[in-house]
Amino acid sequence: MALLEIENLSVSYGSIRALRGISLKVEPGEIVTLIGGNGAGKSTTLRTISGLLSPQEGQILFEGKPIACKSPHSIAANRLIHVPEGRGIFANLTVEENLRLGAYCRSDTNEIRQDYEHALELFPRVKERLWQLAGTLSGGEQQMVAIARALLARPKLLMLDEPSLGLAPQIVQLIFQVIRKINAGGTTILLVEQNANLALQVAHRAYVLEVGKIEMSGPAAELANSDDIRKAYLGGH
Ligand code: ATP
């Protein structure tokens, strides 16, 4: 059974049709990426999966169960965790307080402590800054805190929206190495990226979204070699 399955999903903002009947699957253990240009509907897809938007049509199944009408809180409690574009960091709280909020649905104290230590091992820079106010971190450090905080929810599916956005290339490399490690540790990932090059390097499979429709899908390596994809998204000729 797929971990996440979306069937014929349509979402509108008033009269703007942002998603026009998209279908996709994420199997356990995969990194799946959703790539596409500005305004293609990538963030809308993640926001609908995490319960922030209601679809006009279609189904979302998580572990085989419909979640399209559930609240964001109950979806997160099922360990489907969304790191939004812009990161959603609480600027006036310390890094440590931000991290602890990731575990707010949990009461398994020992496991929370393990996940906390593990997140800090993945991001040593976060560990050095536990007492700093999160709003004073650099953009890259805030992205690390946002991902580390998500790990405190022990996600079954981790959805990352544009983790590379606005960051220096070196920091982006570091964050993508950690994304690989998180997946190697058994966490399934749905990654939204405008940086198709990077996303196709790290993902197993990919979907290409254009103006609210899936235009292409397949193994990431195959799409990275496709002439159409190279021309449209990879700066190729
Ligand atoms: P980007 O990478 O630029 O964020 P995206 O692929 O994530 O692009 P979405 O943000 O999902 O795209 O937007 C899809 C469409 O829905 C766009 O036409 C956008 O203008 C529209 N849209 C997004 N959010 C809203 C909103 N709150 N109100 C009205 N229209 C919206």
From TrEMBL:
Keyword Transport on entry: yes
GO molecular function: ATP binding; ATP hydrolysis activity; branched-chain amino acid transmembrane transporter activity
Residue span(s) of domain ABC transporter: 4-236
UniProtKB keywords: Amino-acid transport, ATP-binding, Nucleotide-binding, Transport
Any matching Pfam family: ABC_tran
Superkingdom of origin: Bacteria
Entries under SMART domains matching the protein: AAA
InterPro entries on file: AAA+_ATPase, ABC_branched_ATPase_LivF/BraG, ABC_transporter-like_ATP-bd, ABC_transporter-like_CS, BCAA_Transport_ATP-bd_LivF, P-loop_NTPase
An example Gene Ontology biological process: L-amino acid transport
Repeat as UniProt keyword: no
Protein family per UniProt: Belongs to the ABC transporter superfamily.
Name assigned to this protein: High-affinity branched-chain amino acid transport ATP-binding protein LivF
